[in-house]
Specification:
- The chain is built from 13 helices and seven strands.
- By secondary structure, the protein is mainly α.
- It has two domains: 118 residues, Rossmann fold; 88 residues, no CATH class.
- The protein is globular and about 55 Å long.
- The two termini are 24 Å apart.
Length: 290
């Protein structure tokens, strides 16, 4: 439910982005509704989808789900249930923003710049960590289940968030609609749009697409915070890719906070997002429980 609402808080696409999405839908023989003009696409393929359905290709070229999600959101529910071969295909477009397909009769490069959102249970039964002790999975079963998603793919996902089960109090609040302190989608979209505008005014692009040279200019840290990030790199054995992604995430959090510079809290939040909530408990500066 959360994933399906992401598009309601994203800024509207510009004209060139909307034209690209409309053209891709036309190539794929998909219906286009004028009321969705400039609305980012949302694609949620089933976990039984084949590599061709996801990537595209075939004997006669077909557009896959990752291209139909261009400029929008690609959602994978039950991530470990997807074929490992299908999941590994995501690694190229997550880095480059396009997918290259080579067949005997054609070679083509299709756009595939999307936001990937994935959801998975913590174990096969789904109750690992449950306060009522309902999980009956062995340690080996949990390890095998979680290992279905490779480390290189997880390394390309910037935010890893544990979603705990609702308490009786939370359920009652939801049923009664008692959400006085919550923001609606329009309010959140306004903040996201403002942050995106800051990024384009500063660098002419979103933070996700900053080069290393641009990051050195726009993602500066204080000397003390640089040491904290280096400490996190060593303690959590982070890759170079994770290092740069944490900086971009911290810059984005600062933009959402309407801050000119990346502060300590922005960096700590970005580091915390790289791990499930219990992983960083011993790292100084992370929020409690993270």
């Amino acid at each position: 439910m959360l994933a399906s609402r992401i598009c309601t808080i994203l800024p509207p696409m510009d004209e060139s982005g909307a034209l690209a999405v409309a053209a891709l839908r036309s190539i794929a023989a998909k219906a286009f509704k004028p009321e969705y003009w400039r609305v980012p696409p949302f694609r949620a393929p089933h976990h039984t989808a084949s590599a061709v359905a996801l990537v595209g290709g075939g004997s006669t070229l077909k557009v896959g789900e990752i291209t139909l999600a261009h400029n929008g959101v690609l959602f994978f529910d039950e991530l470990p249930e997807f074929s490992p071969k299908v999941l590994e295909v995501l690694r190229e477009p997550l880095e480059s923003g396009y997918i290259s397909i080579s067949r005997a009769s054609y070679q083509v490069r299709l756009p595939a710049r999307f936001q990937l959102i994935a959801a998975m249970n913590p174990c096969p039964c789904g109750y690992l960590g449950d306060t009522e002790g309902r999980c009956r999975c062995s340690t080996e079963k949990v390890r095998q289940y979680q290992a279905r998603v490779s480390g290189p793919l997880l390394d390309r996902i910037d935010m890893h968030v544990n979603v705990s089960s609702l308490s009786d109090y939370d359920r009652e609040r939801l049923l009664k609609g008692n959400q006085k302190n919550s923001e609606n989608s329009e309010e959140i979209r306004a903040r996201v749009t403002q942050a995106s505008a800051r990024q384009f005014a500063r660098a002419g692009k979103n933070n996700a697409f900053l080069s290393q040279a641009e990051m050195r200019k726009h993602c500066k840290l204080s000397s003390e915070d640089e040491q904290r990030l280096k400490q996190a790199m060593q303690q959590f054995k982070l890759s170079t890719r994770a290092f740069f992604r944490i900086l971009k995430m911290a810059r984005t959090i600062a933009d959402l906070d309407d801050a000119t510079d990346i502060g300590r809290s922005h960096l700590m939040e970005a580091i915390a997002f790289r791990f499930p909530q219990q992983s960083g408990a011993s790292f100084p500066g992370l929020p409690p429980g993270q």
